[in-house]
Amino acid sequence: MKLLVATRSAGKQREVKRLLEDSGLDLVFPEDMNLFEDPAEDLLETSDSFRANALAKAEHFAKRSHLPTVADDSGLEVFYLGAAPGTRSKRWAGATGTAEEVDAANNAELVRRLAGAPALKRMARYRCALVLIRTVGAMPEVFEAECAGRILEAPAGTAGFGYDPYFFSTDLGMSFGEATDAEKDAVSHRGKAFKALVTALKE
């Protein structure tokens, strides 16, 4: 089965390839299908709901590709910050540039907002919503997952992407920046959601 994964994020693409490596699915991404960036894509992530944003992306790319399509919206929620950055995780600091430069700006904003906050106010979670559309017009299938942790005062490790070096995983007892790919995938929000997706596709 050929499955379009509706993301242009290099970090997410690497992770999804790894998560679905043994699934037997033939994965393609927008650029593989010559689905070049459309200005309309800027309007696909305007909701404050991970599920709504994932649905908008899945519908958009399913219509463009006519392929079974899965889209993800995910992000970090810090309880002390009112669940921010939430659905704005990727664009929180308003930075432009390379993915690395955007990540650095977002992490700097996270550190700034939590400066001096005690451990109890650093509790956080990663959340992921996946939406699968098998054919255009079909009922969307939703898979949601989360993982718990807290935000470190300083980065630990260099693995992963986004906020990973600052996210100390409760399950692993280390940051996602320190974890191996296999360790992270076993407990991460995206790992759990994609595992549920694969189970549904096999059924």
CATH architecture group name: Alpha-Beta Complex
Could you name the CATH class? Alpha Beta
Question: If you consult CATH, what is the topology?
Answer: Maf protein
Oligomer: single chain
Number of domains: 1
Strand % is 15-25%
Kindly state the mean pLDDT as a whole number?
A: 94
Largest β-sheet summary: 8 strands, mixed
Alpha-carbon distance between the two ends:
13 Å
User: What are the segments in which pLDDT stays under 50 over at least 5 consecutive residues?
Assistant: none
The radius of gyration computed from the alpha-carbon positions, rounded to a whole number of angstroms, is 17 Å
Tell me what the structure shows:
The protein is of the alpha+beta class and 203 residues long. The chain is built from 5 helices and 8 strands. It has helices at 10-19, 50-65, 99-113, 181-187, 189-202, and strands at 2-5, 26-28, 69-78, 84-85, 123-133, 141-151, 167-169, 174-175. A hairpin with a 7-residue loop joins β5 and β6. The longest helix has 16 residues, at 50-65. The mean pLDDT is 94.
List the helices and strands and how they pair.
Elements: E1 2-5, H1 10-19, E2 26-28, H2 50-65, E3 69-78, E4 84-85, H3 99-113, E5 123-133, E6 141-151, E7 167-169, E8 174-175, H4 181-187, H5 189-202
Parallel strand pairs: 1-2, 1-3
Antiparallel strand pairs: 3-4, 3-5, 5-6, 6-7, 7-8
Please name the defining characteristics of this protein.
203 residues; alpha+beta; Maf protein; 8-stranded mixed β-sheet; 8 strands; globular
